[in-house]
Amino acid sequence: MENIKLFNKLKDYEIDELLGFLHATTKVFSKGSVVINKGSKLNDICVVLVGELSISTKNINGSENVIKKVSAGSSFCTNYVCAGVKSSPVVVRAEKQTGILFLPYDRMLILHESVSQWQKLLLKNLFAEVAQENLEISARMNVLNQKTIREKILFYLNSIADEVGKNTIEIPFSREEMAGYLCVDRSALSRELSNMHKDGLIDYKKNEFQLF
Amino acid sequence: MENIKLFNKLKDYEIDELLGFLHATTKVFSKGSVVINKGSKLNDICVVLVGELSISTKNINGSENVIKKVSAGSSFCTNYVCAGVKSSPVVVRAEKQTGILFLPYDRMLILHESVSQWQKLLLKNLFAEVAQENLEISARMNVLNQKTIREKILFYLNSIADEVGKNTIEIPFSREEMAGYLCVDRSALSRELSNMHKDGLIDYKKNEFQLF
DNA sequence: TTCCCCCCGTTGCAAATGCAACATCACCCT
DNA sequence: AGGGTGATGTTGCATTTGCAACGGGGGGAA
Question: Which end of chain B is less enclosed by CB atoms within 10 A, N or C?
């Protein structure tokens, strides 16, 4: 229970209290089983306690396409629940044996002064988690919005440099993962990095980059 | 005040009450003036009452890059405020003369049973607005994630067809806007649409499309 | 050490795409 | 009708990029 974003700064006894108040339930899903099917009703904020999930879109012809993985501590499908989407547009599947906590959204919004100690924090944490996901997606969108590979790379590296306030940075990706994030071919990425080095724009070694 | 997403389903007297309770303030910005500068403090949920804003990133060399426009009824910078980002990473500028409502975020989370009628709705609306923006961005990300123009087009059209449950659809874009959304060249988009028609995949006229 | 494997860089080539310039078309105004 | 204007389609061309194949280097295991 320690690393659950939604319960950040909440004391154990407060968590106990809110689980009861919200009529929370838990369930364990075995590896490969479907947690939420496309079209099924969405009423709860769902949290991964242990394990890992994949979220997939499902085409008309039935083929699935993984768009995201969710690990322990994070909630999922929160966007749909909060946005008022009643039936799931995605399939959620357990990648390993996975324990999940279900918190009815309706009850989260029943306000009582007497329980506001934890409720204020819970709501604040939920806002933070949804908003942070928004920032992550936006950041990647801005990268993908760039036309050329070089622009994508520079935009990405600069945004990180901005964040940490230095021009020597370390990225959390291998080349292959970096190519996936930038949505370009791995070899094309290597080629362009090489060109940018020749042009005196960057220096790099493994996942450490320096901007000039 | 009618079309403000944040005040959806709230009665006028409830809005009056909450404006007072939250210590809301308003301010008018003239065309071209800076509403929020990069680096300035973010404490309030901001809502456009009338007018239009642009949100821009600012490079180290000072050049600005518009990433979004915000029109009346929508809130902005909500992501940063809710995510706990204290200082603005973007510049917000008035495109026309624009009136803005500022709602201190801290006070939104002060829970009182006595005022919960409007507070519950307000919080629910805020969740909905942030989450809906997530869904919009995610949808576009999935499109941009496709490799070829043809895949981008099909993914986009299919996602809309999925939504409305028909294979004849109408999109909210002109060609130029569509090209912008798909992040491709306008003429390249026209060419590919033409090719797809030849290949018997789609039929189209203006912004109406039919999928086969 | 030697072998093996994985990650990364390099390169030739073909296909996709951006770019620019021009052609058409639809629509509005007079 | 005529002309003007803005949106869309078309096309040639140069560039970018994906793809596939190969090579080198580092690290782990026997």
Answer: C
Q: How confident is the model at residue A206 (pLDDT cuts 50, 70, 90)?
A: confident
- Which nucleotides in chain C have some atom under 7 angstroms from a protein Cβ? 7-12, 16-21
What is the C-alpha separation between B76 and B68, in angstroms, rounded?
10
- Find out whether A119 and B109 touch, Cβ atoms under 8 Å: no
Tell me if A87 sits within 8 A of B162, measured CB to CB.
no
Of A45-54, A67-76, B69-78, B111-120, the least confident = B111-120
Give the Cβ contact number of residue A95 at 10 Å: 16
State how far the Cα of B145 lies from the Cα of A185, in Å rounded to an integer: 12
- The answer to whether B212 and B201 are in contact (CB under 8 A) is yes
Which residues of chain B are within 8 Å of residue A59 when distances are taken between CB atoms? 158
pLDDT band at B131 (very low <50, low <70, confident <90, very high): very high
**pLDDT at residue A114 tops 80:** no
Report the SS3 class of residue A68.
Answer: strand
- Kindly report the number of other CB atoms within 10 A of residue B147's CB atom: 10
Angle at A28 between CA A93 and CA A63, to 5 degrees: 10
C-beta separation of B205 from B169 below 8 A? no
Domain boundaries, chain A: 5-141, 146-211
Residue A111 has pLDDT above 70, yes or no: yes
pLDDT at A116: 67
| Contact with chain A for residue B3, Cβ under 8 A | no
A5 band by pLDDT with thresholds 50, 70 and 90: very high
Kindly give the residue spans of alpha helices, DSSP state H, lying in chain A.
12-21, 78-83, 105-108, 116-144, 149-164, 175-182, 186-198
Q: Is residue B86 less than 8 Å (CB to CB) from chain A?
A: no
Please check whether the domain covering A5-141 is classified as CATH 2.60.120.10.
Answer: yes
Which distant-in-sequence residues (6+ apart) come within 8 Å of A66 by Cβ?
Answer: A54, A55, A56
pLDDT (0 to 100) of residue B205: 87
With CA atoms as reference, the chain B residue closest to A167 would be B60
- Among chain A residues, the shortest Cα distance to B56 is held by A142
CATH, domain range A146-211: 1.10.10.10
Q: Could you give phi then psi for residue B105, rounded to 5 degrees?
A: -65, -40
